[in-house]
Each structure stands twice: as structure tokens, then as C-alpha cells.
């Protein structure tokens, strides 16, 4: 779906002369004569280094003379006091000056950032602002979140006639000094004495000043997220920004996930789990989101809009990719709204196979193709030479399954699925059929186990059996059936090898565990222990890189937890004395 909205021309006010007046004369003159002054982002002054100007398309030095203490003091004397977060400003401007200090608290570096008021920048989401719903802006630093907040506050106050209060912690939205910048229009501004008091000022604004809209920049702590929920529940429209590029980042952030409803683990009944075709313990949204609309600012002129955060979060928690609304604006000021369909979703641990069946494959006729006459004539010699090369490769202490398959290729065996028709017929050797059938059934794999090696497309065997069974290798060479090795008969090892046989294995993508692989005929305690291990891996060990200790479990249950951790390509160990012996999981 495409739509077009007309945009007025954007107007930019930067008060750049007042920032230049603060800088030392040599730097000021260099900037005043610079051809790219209109796109200046910031000026960096570090003691003992050349002064640097950063523009939208790169950075360059302004002088070949290093910055001195006198240069830095020249700037500090013309600024107000630096606040607790080491920021200062220029009265009634949007410029922000941040300082770096040494161990004795002396200022040895300055970052002088240009503040610009851009009128018309939020016309891309003007229709969303007018709905009265709370809006959360996401994006990397420098993409324009604060600029958008400032313009939203002005539009709501001046053009829509609402009572707007801005919580201005660092004076970035309305500028430095007691009188706010004219870019916020009739909106009122409350300053925050110290950053850690921001949540208190948010509540104070609601209780004392009767706002219809509260604008807040950089919600970053749990207290601020809680204050935002309290404000939203009182019927006040919230417009704010938070740390994170995408909605998925907030889902993984336990501190800020409450902004989009929070996450909780829910145990389903047997009937509901079967209806959903999911495991019994699933993640669900805990509460209605604080912000009803989310806007991801990927670039200054390309924003992704989620007009229903609750539906978006529910979709992501179910493991599906949602349809996204992308809004862009061109140089002529015209907004284009496009809904992009998601990429084909991967079904949890095992994506749907996408292996085309082609004629001429191993079983295109339903029977094995005859051996070439030259190979048949010299079968014994070829097999002997192949066995010799294969054995030499096996004797080398190779630890990976890929090495084993490469050995087969080196001896003339075709390894892998070369367009064979599905289902794939597999001859297991030395591996329990119960475990194999469990993996095939749970993951719905196009694999059939066969007891006849003559009709098999591949052999699946334990590595130790391949090394010690020369006859198996001889038969596989003669029949041109590839052998896939498994280090052990555990569920993760079998799953990984079957994925590789079907070309479903992507080592660059971490696998999510389908607990159905490990919980067939398991007790409630065992299911609970496996779910504990899964949540620890997916919510702490992998995203945060921190080790985790689990609750004490019996030897049999710990063995199941070890197998589950192995599925994620992670290491775990048991420690402690019985009955308090427990599992410790380590990051990769």
C-alpha cells in the first residue's frame, strides 16, 4: 500500500553565531570561512590535540596548532556552570557543550554540539501526533530524536492548543537558561536539578501543573519507566524517547521492557499448548504497553512506524515477523508510506525445508542408479584405495563433523543433498532409533529411517563406529552413499547433523531450543528444569555474555540440562555437593 502526503518546506534555526562567539578566535575564524558551516555537527577540543570540526559527511582539523589550557578556559569562562552530567549551554540557544575531566576534576576536553530547531520535521508522523496516543521514539544517537521531540511539543502546544509540559533533564529540548527557546512554542518546560531526579519531576509535573501532554527525553532507568506508566494510566499523553534502535531491543532490555508491556513466562495447559502447537512454557506480554505507538528512526528521512505496539509485541513473542509500515520523505517534501511484508519466517528451531526436488537426483527414479562400468570393474581396488585415504584422514584427530564430510569428498564420495527427492531415506548405524524418531517427529523433518542400506540416500552413524567398521565404509563407497558422523547419540548432536543433511544448518544464526525435543515422557519437574535452563541461556548468557548458575537438581535432570545447553553450542559444568549440586552455564 502506498500513500503520499504533502510536506511544507522545513525551516532551520541554529543561532550558530552565538556558539562561534564562545570559541577561541583562531577556531572561530576558521569556521566562519568554512564552506560547510551550514552542516556543522560539533566542534571537538581536546588538550594537546588539534581542534576538530565534524560535519555530516566527515571530520577535519581546523588548525595545525594544538589546543591549550588557555583555549579550553576561554570557552569555559563564557559558559554557564556545568551540571551534574557535565553539560553546559548558552542562554536561550539549543547548543550543548559537554566536558571531559581529569582525575583532579579539571576540564581537559570539550564537545561543542550545534543545536538546531527544525520546523516541519515531524510532518511524517503528524497524523499520529494528532491521535492523542502516547508515542515512543527509538533510534541511534544523532539521528534526530530530540529534534523531533522539540517539534512535536511545539505542534501540540501551538497548533493543537494542548497543555504541554517538557521534562528537560539536560536542557537539550528547550535550551539553556531560565527562558526556554522559542522552538518549543507555548509549551512549558520543567528543568531537572540532577539526572537521577528525572522520575520525580515527571510525577511532579502531573500532580502540580495539569498537563495534557508530557514530553520526556531519554527514558533510561526502571524508575523512569515506572513513572511513565503512572503518567499514562492517569490519561496523560506521553511523547518520549528511549535507548534502542528497534522495538526488539526493548523486548530484550529488562529495565525498559515495561514501556511496551513487559514480558512474563506463562505455563500453558496441555490442551492450550496443543492448540497453539507450542511448548508448554511461553513468553507473553505482561500488561498493556505504556506507549501505544512506536517510531523507529532508522535515518533522518526514513522512519518505521508501529501503530499498535501491543499487536507488534505479541507477534514478536510468538516468533513471527510482523508487517512494518515504512515512511520516507523525498527532497520535494513528499511523504511515502509503504507497508513491507516480512521475510519468510523461520519456524523456531527448524525452518521449513526449501530443498527443490530435481530430476536426475539420487532417487529420481525411485531406485539407485547403476555404477559406471569402470568403477564396477575396479571396485575392489577403488574401495581399497578409498578406505586407505579415509582411514588416514580418520586417524588425524579431527573434532568437527565438517572435517569428516570433507574426508568423504576427498575420497570421491558425494557428500550432501544434491537435489535428491524428499523424503530423505537415512540408514542409522549405532544410533538409537527412539531418539532419531523423536527428532524427526517433533521437528517434522522430511526424513524416513530405513533398515535397507540399498535404498538409503545417506548413512548416519556414530563417529567411533565409522572408525572401527571398515565394511561399512566399503559398502558406502561402492554404493556411493555418503556417511554423516555424529559425535554422540544426544538429541542436540542428532538434530544438528540432520539439519546439515537437509541443508538447514546456518552456523551464523543461534538456534532456539524446541523443548519438545527434550521433554517427551518428562515429568513436570524435568520440564520446569529445562525451561529454567532455556530462559537462562536466551535471556542472560547469550545476550549479556554472563555465566548463570541454576537451581540444584538431581543427576538425571542435570544431564538433560547439559544436553539442552549443548544445543546452544555453549559449555556447562556441574558443581557443588549433593543434594545442592547444580549446573553453571558459561557464555561462548
UniProtKB/TrEMBL annotation:
> From which domain of life does this come?
Bacteria
Per its UniProt record, what SUPFAM superfamilies does this chain match? Answer: P-loop containing nucleoside triphosphate hydrolases, R3H domain
Quote the CDD domains the UniProt record gives: AAA (cd00009), R3H_AAA (cd02645)
Q: Which InterPro entries match?
A: AAA+_ATPase (IPR003593), P-loop_NTPase (IPR027417), PTPase_dom (IPR058670), R3H_AAA (IPR034081), R3H_dom (IPR001374), R3H_dom_sf (IPR036867), Spore_III_AA_AAA+_ATPase (IPR045735)
Provide a Gene Ontology MF annotation, just one.
nucleic acid binding
Checking Pfam families in the record gives: PTPase (PF25516), R3H (PF01424), Spore_III_AA (PF19568)
Q: Which Gene3D superfamilies match?
A: P-loop containing nucleotide triphosphate hydrolases, R3H-like domain
Kindly state which keywords UniProt assigns to this record, in alphabetical order: ATP-binding, Nucleotide-binding
List, for all copies, the residue spans of the domain called R3H. 524-588
Region: Disordered; residue ranges are 347-375
Per the database entry, which stretches of residues form a coiled coil?
none
Q: Which region is the signal sequence?
A: none
PANTHER family the UniProt entry points to: KINASE-RELATED (PTHR20953), P-LOOP CONTAINING NUCLEOSIDE TRIPHOSPHATE HYDROLASES SUPERFAMILY PROTEIN (PTHR20953:SF3)
Q: What is this protein called?
A: R3H domain-containing protein
Q: Which organism is it from?
A: Chamaesiphon minutus (strain ATCC 27169 / PCC 6605)
